[in-house]
Amino acid sequence: MSLRSNVLDLRKRKREVQKGGGDKAIEKQAKMGKLTARERILALLDKNSFHEYDLFVEHSAKDFGMESKVLHGDGVIIGTGTIYSKPVCIFAQDFTVAGGSLGLMHARKITKIMDHALKMRVPLIGINDSGGARIQEGVNSLAGYGEIFFRNTLASGVIPQISVILGPCAGGAVYSPALTDFVFVVENISKMFITGPSVIKSVLGEEISMEELGGARVHAELTGNAHFFATSELDCFEQIKKLISYIPRNNGTKAMPFPPKLPKKGRKIEDIVPGDPRIPYDIRDIIGGITDSSEFFEVMENFAPNIVIGFGRMEGDTVGFVANQPMVLAGVLDTDSSDKAARFIRYCDAFNIPIVTLEDLPGYLPGVDQEHAGVIRHGAKILYAYSEATVPKVTVILRKAYGGGYIAMNSRHLRADFVFAWPTAEIAVMGPEGAANIVFRKEIAEAENPEEMRQQKIQEYKEKFANPYVAAAQGYIDEVIEPRDTRGRILHALQVSENKSVFLPNKKHGIPPF
Amino acid sequence: MSEEKEFKTLVVQGAVYKTHYTWKFENRVNWEAPDPNHIYSFIPGTIIDIFVKPKEKVKEGQTLLLLEAMKMQNQVRMPFDGEIVKIHVKKDDVIPRKFLMLEIRPVRIKK
């Protein structure tokens, strides 16, 4: 054979294997409204940047007639490429090959690219589209999952790990995405659950569709398992690229800087916030009045929307925002919002992203359901996360900062680096209504007209304590600022904090309340 | 102003806030004090067998019925000496969690 014919033979072999499960299976995949694994990778990565490895890997199963079956690439594609010219490692399960089921060699390919990603300190993107464990391979497929979970944990906080659910992801398989930093789901395509509808029906008699049980919306709104929701695969890839632009490649670097830009004109934040602390507004309008080009990339937009988290840029550098949302549940902290914010804070801390906290909340959500759902241990997560974080931490108190909520939202006491307050800030142990009822209980009860007395005492308390100056007098607030100076003050604070260095007690790791 | 009309109210420590609710908040289950005379299913499952009849006097610890769930046959027992008031399930019924299966009442049983 000449070199030329060898090359032609290689090309022929590649073409054969790259077809995955073949034309019929690819047609079926398209009918389900899904791209193939290869199309997905090519759509996500920079043009001509993808390089595939382990193309010729074959499965090693010998039982149940598997020895005579050929599974191209063993149902998964792995490789490296670039997004915005920065390297990433990627794997995509190929549903057209044996339903993307996970066997020993399939798992070995995934763990190979995971090991690469960790060693080379580049982000890992995993596209999940799999029927689950390959039953014919028995315990070997379980071993495969375990090896993946272990690597997810090892890489956690070192490199960004992104999971994209583009098909079923059921049973043990769901735990790999759950261990990663960000999970992307697509309407009508993503399905995640531990036990499927048929098992639930046969064992428990509950009837539910796959979509209602573990569809994209369920995970984006209800469970909090997903961080980004898209209506199409291509939209989803745009979101992933955007996320990649905001985060650093690994925990030893910073996110890539962008050209500094001013917020859009006409975004006057001093006109957005109503004077009455009981009237809501959209906190995202304030964020938009602070960030470069007024851009804000929200994370977990539909889950626990009473707290808003996400990324923006200030003078070109990535900043993580954590902000109470008065528009939803008055911006209270509860089990879900504490969990949501705490994880985001830990993400920012692990990846050198400064945190800006915008505060306006009446406290924790009251209710039996909250208490019984463990609001104590969930609420503790946010305290833990803020206290532990050593990245620059800046807080701006816009209006209410009452009680436990005040402490939790990156207060001076949890080692915020800078705490600013607007003149409208009310920093107190509770709101005037509640406080007056307790402090002046006797006067109100004994008054001729108790309601009149109550209102009078509320007003009295308001004037005396519902302001930023009591806290400022203690040095708990560094500066009372004019709303229009907010961006400038945050920028200066971040600039000053650039070389922040904090020493924590030496320990193996803490024991956060999860 | 039209938008403001859509706001709901949330009371936190005496103050009434205008705001939107979440789906979860609107669908939260209001807590009720448990009634010791009502026996609910603690897991969804199938009624395999019922061993008692209405008006029957039953001693504490006696098995009332079998509820099969997750391939386990769970014996539902009498929590105290008493009488069966009403039975809301029958053999082979498939019931959800927190389903009222039996109503009972305490009665002193002579030894």
TrEMBL record, chain A:
Domain CoA carboxyltransferase C-terminal: 264-509
One GO location term (cellular component): acetyl-CoA carboxylase complex
GO molecular function annotation: acetyl-CoA carboxylase activity; propionyl-CoA carboxylase activity
Ranges of residues in domain CoA carboxyltransferase N-terminal: 4-259
Gene Ontology terms describing biological process: carbon fixation
InterPro entries: AccD/PCCB, AcCoA_carboxyl_beta, ClpP/crotonase-like_dom_sf, COA_CT_C, COA_CT_N
Domain of life: Bacteria
One Pfam short name: Carboxyl_trans
Family named by the database record: Belongs to the AccD/PCCB family.
Name this protein carries in UniProt: Propionyl-CoA carboxylase beta chain
Organism: Mariniphaga sediminis
TrEMBL record, chain B:
Keyword Membrane attributed: no
Protein name: Acetyl-CoA carboxylase biotin carboxyl carrier protein subunit
Superkingdom of origin organism: Bacteria
PANTHER family documented for this protein: OXALOACETATE DECARBOXYLASE ALPHA CHAIN (PTHR45266)
Keywords: Biotin
Signal peptide: none
Domain Lipoyl-binding, first and last residues per copy: 30-105
Chain segments annotated as coiled-coil in the UniProt record: none
Gene source species: Mariniphaga sediminis
InterPro entries: Biotin_Carboxyl_Carrier/Decarb, Biotin_lipoyl, Single_hybrid_motif
Pfam families, sorted: Biotin_lipoyl
CDD domains: biotinyl_domain
